[in-house]
Write a structure and sequence with these properties.
Chain lengths: 389, 469
């Protein structure tokens, strides 16, 4: 079926100056052919994990609707920041980084979701690997729900690839519920062809001591949007994110990550390392939101971006919202080219400027690639990075 | 434990909160609301040249067409139909303090303005409601060729062309709704021109007092610091508190010439019924330096982000600011900078304290254009939360369009550290003193940038009273 995309996504939790054009992003594409409306299946479903396929997107979100009060619970009295945009996504079963327009697209096209449920206490040792082997001309939408019951552990790897010259469209939605003590790791390795349009939307909720970890490598695709919104609903819940990205040519990357601290002693750590080359563009929005009642919580968001061309455009919005006294929130950003001191040091060791750049690109990307828990995929990503530099 | 919690007192505004009753005999007050007729009436009152009258009408059109901002604090409590755009005393502006009407003189005497002029200022302008009531500049400064006068006089004098060339060119009325409003009904404010190479050793100061209830103040400050010149300009603002909303939509345009330096210091202590929607902007030519020192303590609601355009190669900007948001206040403050020239540099350093339900928002933007090779920008913003019913938000933005730039950004939000208090107590300092020292230390980077008498005022403003057990 052919469809027009007209979506407003990655809306900032709070609006700021309109002249910056960062308050949101638009996905506009006409006549996109979308044929696949379901997700690839893993080679095997481990013991203790059940997979329910072909569930409507709406029905798959029921687990979040049933727990909505708990997910949005607070021991404090949350107030609204200036320019608050939360009303926009209120109707989502679970708030996600890219927002309600992704849900609406999934629902309107009748996307079927796969629901993975990990039973209480089950610790799945081997990661569940979902392979998105996209072909030239492919158009696909895919949705997952990962429900980790109490004290369970699971890792899902999304291995997204295509030929370098391939053109197409892939849209993903992943929603996660980590119950008490559960740990969910999502690994996303995106090596799509240079003409692919891609979005990847993620939403999560953690109950007491629940943890969500997201490891992302955004190395391919032409225009890419990604978002992640994590509700740290109960005490000692945790969100960790590491993203490595590379943008070349006239490619773009648009990111919106939010850690919503509601429970006490919650923790969020978001790290973004990337490289922009040629005429690439990147917009990074990342927000730590300490709601009233989240006392004892800590949040850290850091960005390290290497700019390697005079024609790149880099936009960064590191936001901290805070309505709680006893918290520790910090952000830092280092953006620029290779420092003269570093270059001098490299050259004094016999490494010329071009080689120094290659080393620094690899260092940034491979520090994230090394976190991939599947050796075969890690090796493939390693070769991909080697080829680029 | 709750009984041991330190209490940081709200700012004592009694110094500023005296009211002078304005009677119809001595004061002219324009009817509330904003229409073409009121704009023409202001223009007539001010004896505008034709171009200015036409400009005001254009601005009114812009005001009617531009939407309210969708991103800042709520300004729903502000109803222009209930704001009088123009209130003035029926006497003219005076050049001698003795000639200023008694009731107005008393107001400024209480605020210490003439004393400050005698002791440490090169010139003073005092605005009461919509008009300047006093303007004076020391003879030796005037002898250097420095012009410091009210803007209305300048519009009709030998600098008329200079005013026309610069007025609302840096802040065009299309910039935002309240810039358009300002253009339509502006009144009062100062014009400063410092000729080439002249260094004014002691500061000039303008003090703005909005005494009338339900009124707006729309003063325009235009400063041109010519090549190689140097100036420190201080601005102070206050108002008594009323139960109805007051509006301040001033505009400051600063032109810093080649290798010139301008320091612009502000202590803003409007009353808590004030909507402070002020616009400040500077453009800096080659090798010029713009320094902002900003203390925001008053107002019910503030939108305040002084902007600097680093146009010339090697131009520099420093912004040092502190915001103290107490009960009932929503202060949205910060800074904006645009790097255009090569080797330009900017340093933004802000501190924010939120207490007693106050909302303090730091908002900024750093834009580095493609032409700004070897630009350097550094942003540091710290927020201190003194309780859990307040709010401290940090909303910075960076837009970088060249690789040949270095941009660093860091921010921290937290409370008074228990470890630091413990350390100081272990050195024999009481808990209350330790906490007071920590908060004073937090504000110190800003207070040390202020002239001594203003640093003292600021320290008084954030006088911290501790209660212990």
């Amino acid at each position: 079926m052919n469809t027009d995309l007209n979506m407003k996504v990655n809306v900032l939790p709070v609006f700021t100056y309109n002249f910056l054009h960062v308050n949101d992003s638009a996905i506009n594409a006409s006549d996109i052919e979308i044929e696949k409306l379901s997700s690839p299946k893993p080679k095997e479903v481990p013991q203790g994990v059940s997979l329910k396929s072909e569930v409507s997107f709406e029905e798959a979100g029921q687990i979040f609707r049933d727990n909505k009060e708990r997910i949005l619970s607070s021991t404090g009295v949350p107030g609204e920041p200036n320019g608050d945009t939360s009303a926009r996504d209120k109707e989502q079963a679970l708030r996600t980084g890219m927002g309600i327009d992704v849900d609406n697209l999934m629902n309107s096209l009748g996307v079927k979701a796969d629901v993975y449920t990990v039973e209480e206490g089950v610790k799945v040792e081997k990661p569940i690997i979902l392979s998105y082997d996209m072909q030239d001309g492919d158009g696909a939408l895919s949705a997952h729900v990962i429900h980790a019951r109490k004290n369970s552990e699971v890792t899902i790897i999304m291995d997204i690839t295509s030929d370098n010259e391939a053109k197409g469209f892939l849209g993903l939605s992943t929603r996660i519920l980590a119950e008490e003590g559960a740990k969910v790791t999502v690994v996303r390795s995106q090596l799509l062809g240079k003409e692919f349009v891609h979005f990847d939307d993620l939403g999560g909720a953690c109950f007491e001591k629940g943890a969500i970890r997201v490891i992302s490598l955004e190395l391919g695709g032409k225009n890419v949007w990604t978002g992640c919104y994590t509700n740290l609903s109960e005490k000692e819940s945790d969100f960790t994110s590491d993203m490595g990205y590379l943008r070349r040519g006239d490619h773009s990357l648009d990111i919106n990550y939010v850690a919503d601290h509601r429970g006490k002693k919650t923790n969020a750590n978001m790290q973004f390392k990337g490289v922009l080359m040629e005429e690439a563009q990147k917009t990074l929005r990342f927000t730590i939101d300490f709601k009233n009642g989240s006392s004892g919580s800590a949040g850290d968001e850091q960005e390290d971006t290497l700019l390697l061309s005079q024609d790149v455009i880099n936009r960064t919005m590191p936001i901290i919202l805070c309505q709680e006294e006893d918290v520790d929130g910090r952000h830092g950003a280092t953006i620029g080219q290779l420092g003269e001191d570093l270059l001098f040091y490299m050259q004094s060791r016999g490494i010329d400027e071009e080689e120094a750049k290659r080393i620094m690109i690899k260092a940034r990307l491979e520090s994230v690639a090394r976190m991939i828990p599947d050796p075969e995929l890690m090796q493939r990503v390693h070769y991909y990075i080697q080829n680029i530099v | 434990m709750a009984d041991n919690k330190q209490v940081v007192a709200d700012i004592d505004r009694s110094l500023y909160d005296f009211k002078d009753i304005e009677n119809e005999k001595d004061f002219y007050r324009m009817e509330e609301g904003l229409t073409k007729e009121t704009v023409l009436k202001v223009s007539e009152e001010k004896n505008d040249p034709e171009w200015m009258r036409d400009f005001r009408l254009q601005c009114l059109e812009h005001y009617e067409n531009i939407k309210m901002p969708n991103w800042g604090p709520s300004i729903e409590g502000l109803d222009m139909a209930r704001i009088s755009s123009y209130v003035r005393h029926k006497s003219d502006m005076k050049g001698k303090w003795e000639d200023v009407p008694e009731e107005i003189k008393n107001t400024f005497e209480k605020l210490g303005i003439p004393q400050a002029e005698r002791e440490s200022l090169a010139g003073v302008g005092a605005q009461y409601d919509s008009e300047l009531v006093y303007h004076n500049v020391k003879d030796e400064v005037a002898a250097q060729g420095v012009i410091y006068t009210d803007l209305e006089s300048a519009l009709h004098g030998e600098y008329a062309d200079m005013i026309k060339e610069h007025f609302m060119k840096l802040v065009p009325p299309t910039d935002h709704k309240f810039a358009a409003l300002h253009g339509a009904v502006w009144s009062g404010g100062s014009f400063v021109y410092v000729p080439k190479g002249v260094k004014v050793d002691i500061p000039l100061q303008s003090y703005f007092r909005l005494n009338a209830a339900g009124a707006g103040q729309f003063e325009h400050t235009l400063i041109i610091v010519d090549e190689g010149a140097d100036l420190h300009f201080i601005e102070g603002c206050s108002a008594p508190k009323y139960n109805v909303a007051n509006l301040h939509a001033g505009c400051v345009e600063l032109y810093v010439g080649k290798n010139a330096r301008l320091r612009y210091s502000t202590i803003e202590n409007w009353s808590k019924n004030m909507y402070n929607l002020n616009t400040k902007r500077a453009v800096v030519e080659e090798g010029g330096i713009m320094e902002w020192v900003s203390g925001s303590f008053g107002s019910h609601t503030s939108y305040l982000y002084p902007m600097t355009i680093l146009k010339g190669d090697g131009s520099k900007m420093e912004f040092t600011g502190i915001t103290f948001a107490g009960k009932g206040q929503n202060l949205d403050t910060g800074a904006k900078v645009v790097h255009i020239g090569e080797r330009t540099s900017s340093v933004i350093s802000t501190k924010s304290i939120s207490k007693d339900g106050g909302i303090g928002t730091y908002r900024s933007s750093v834009t580095i254009q493609k032409t700004a090779k070897k630009a350097k920008a550094s942003v540091s913003c710290d927020s201190l939360m003194l309780d859990s019913i307040s709010r401290a938000d940090t909303i910075p933005a960076m837009d970088i369009r060249t690789n040949d730039a270095d941009v660093g950004h860091e921010a921290k939000i937290g409370r008074i550290s228990d470890e630091a208090v413990f350390y100081l107590m272990s050195r024999g300092i009481t808990e209350e003193d330790a906490k007071a020292m920590i908060v004073s230390g937090f504000a110190n980077p800003v207070s040390k940038e202020l002239p001594l008498e203003y640093a003292v005022e600021m320290n008084n403003l954030i006088k911290l009273e501790m209660s212990g057990h």
